[in-house]
Amino acid sequence: MRLNQSIIALCCSALSLQAYGFDRVTGDTFASRSPVYAQHGMAATSQPLATQVALDVLKAGGSAVDAAIAANATLGLVEPTGCGIGGDLFAIVWDAKTEQLHALNASGRSPKSLSMADFERLGLSYIPPYGPLPVSVPGAVDGWFELHDKFGKLPMDKLLQPAIDYAENGFPVSDLIAFYIDRSVAKIGNYPGFKETYMPSGAAPKTGEIFKNPDLAATYKLIATQGRDAFYKGDIARSIDEFMKSQGGFLSYQDLAEHQSDWVTPVSINYRGIDVWELPPSGQGIAALQILEMMEGYDVASMGQTSPEYVHTFVEAKKLAFADRAKYYADPDFAEVPVKQLISTEYATERRKLIGDKAGKSVDAGNPALLHGDTIYLTTADAAGNMVSLIQSNYRGMGSGMIPTGRGFILQDRGQLFSLNEGEANSYAPGKRPFHTIIPAFATKDGKPWLSFGVMGGATQPQAHAQIIINMIDFGMNVQEAGDAPRILHTGSSQPTGQVMKKGGVVSLESGFPYQTKRDLMLKGHKIQESLGAYGGYQAIEWDSANKVYRGASESRKDGQAAGY
């Protein structure tokens, strides 16, 4: 026990040194590096190989969307712990030609043959995280083709070729990916196909080892040559159907064949002159907007980024937003989601009145008229001024553990985020999209692009989105410092899956917050707890309109890289 505690302490110490122990001549002392500057194109992803693939596509004349697709396909290979074509996708695109934002919900729906009665028959009060039951239709591949049809320039086979080459010839596994694949072995290592795909030598690949995934290469080749229908109506769909039947699952060929993505209208609030944009539910993006609306009523800049006043106020605003998230956020095809009212200034004013000097232990949703999972976030920008904010995920790390035979990818377990309580907005139903945690973000200034950004990590995401904006606008940080700054994380709020906060939850403060702040928060009734690796992963591209320059940032907590030309 003492050895484990010592290892944890060493890990925390190493993380602190990595993220905040820099001696810098310029900028804030906690910054890991300067922003990356470039005139013609920029890419920021959570893995350097994917960033370089995106830049190669941009240099070859591809659009920002082309670069994002190529990077995402590469990440599905080199970062299978956070994404893959077995998962879903959301994106926001700035179209420089029309000067408009476009938003895509490329998430899948639950199997039509799986009913609430099936869960009752199995005696389940919640949907399990692994195996066939939490599997919903993967939306990512359809999302690629929707984006490509609207904004692509290069043919899809050229965009997928770099990932195919890496899958066939191998790539060196980076630090965090090796760590998370190894952690996944105990959870899903015994499911069919996992060892053959991710442990071909008998063990999970270690840092720096060359890893190949020939099955995924073959799957990508089918998609590259036969298009999206190869995945949803062709050989891949049939193999998924056959595999799921063999595992007692419900996802069928018909579910895949009927899938379609939705172009939706992004929604926004204005925070001190900046319009911050998110996608409406089924995702949780508007929680970030609700938090910002409440925080705008305070003089945040005078508080200071590591002060107990700021942390307390932010956490209490988060609790209020997440109470609404638990009650209202769901698939709008199945539930009335009062988006306009939830993000209104008037509603924020009323909710703000509930923030007192002590930590709230239980918070009710208002009346306006999740910490699990891993994800990839990437952003790209091209010479024409187009920008893409894209997020993609299997939900819980490597997903359900279900690997269709010979396909080289894991199906997501996003269906676990349904509630099995009857009559709730997010209650399970056949053919319904589950509540979604992954959210891309964008910000504009005076109707022009300013910031394409996102933060990976379950329920961390809306909290971190709000903190990035606050860091830049209230605390004057640059685009890299805003991501490197120590983060606030509150867990234990009420959830769309049915859990209810009764004891106020837990506040985790990253290295960089002084002990005095933690002590003052405890005196206000907050429970303070250490956390390792739960603070998310950030990428961003800022457009400097005065100098006509992109500024890129990537995450010191991940293996990521921002680069441009």
Automatic annotation (TrEMBL):
Read off the Gene3D superfamilies from this record: 1.10.246.130, 3.60.20.40
Q: InterPro entries given for it? A: GGT-like_enzyme, GGT_lsub, GGT_peptidase, GGT_ssub_C, Ntn_hydrolases_N
User: What are the BP-aspect GO terms?
Assistant: glutathione biosynthetic process; glutathione catabolic process
Keyword Acyltransferase annotated: yes
The pathway to which it is assigned is: Sulfur metabolism; glutathione metabolism
**Keywords for this protein:** Acyltransferase, Glutathione biosynthesis, Hydrolase, Signal, Transferase, Zymogen
Tell me which positions the record assigns to the signal sequence. 1-21
Entry comment on modification after translation: Cleaved by autocatalysis into a large and a small subunit.
Query: Can you state which reaction this protein catalyses?
Result: an N-terminal (5-L-glutamyl)-[peptide] + an alpha-amino acid = 5-L-glutamyl amino acid + an N-terminal L-alpha-aminoacyl-[peptide]; an S-substituted glutathione + H2O = an S-substituted L-cysteinylglycine + L-glutamate; glutathione + H2O = L-cysteinylglycine + L-glutamate
Binding positions for L-glutamate? G458
- Is-annotated flag, keyword Acyltransferase? yes
One Pfam family cited in the UniProt record for this chain: G_glu_transpept
Any idea which GO molecular function terms this record carries?
glutathione hydrolase activity; leukotriene C4 gamma-glutamyl transferase activity
Q: Which family does it belong to?
A: Belongs to the gamma-glutamyltransferase family.
What interactions and quaternary structure are annotated?
This enzyme consists of two polypeptide chains, which are synthesized in precursor form from a single polypeptide.
Q: What is this protein's record name?
A: Glutathione hydrolase proenzyme
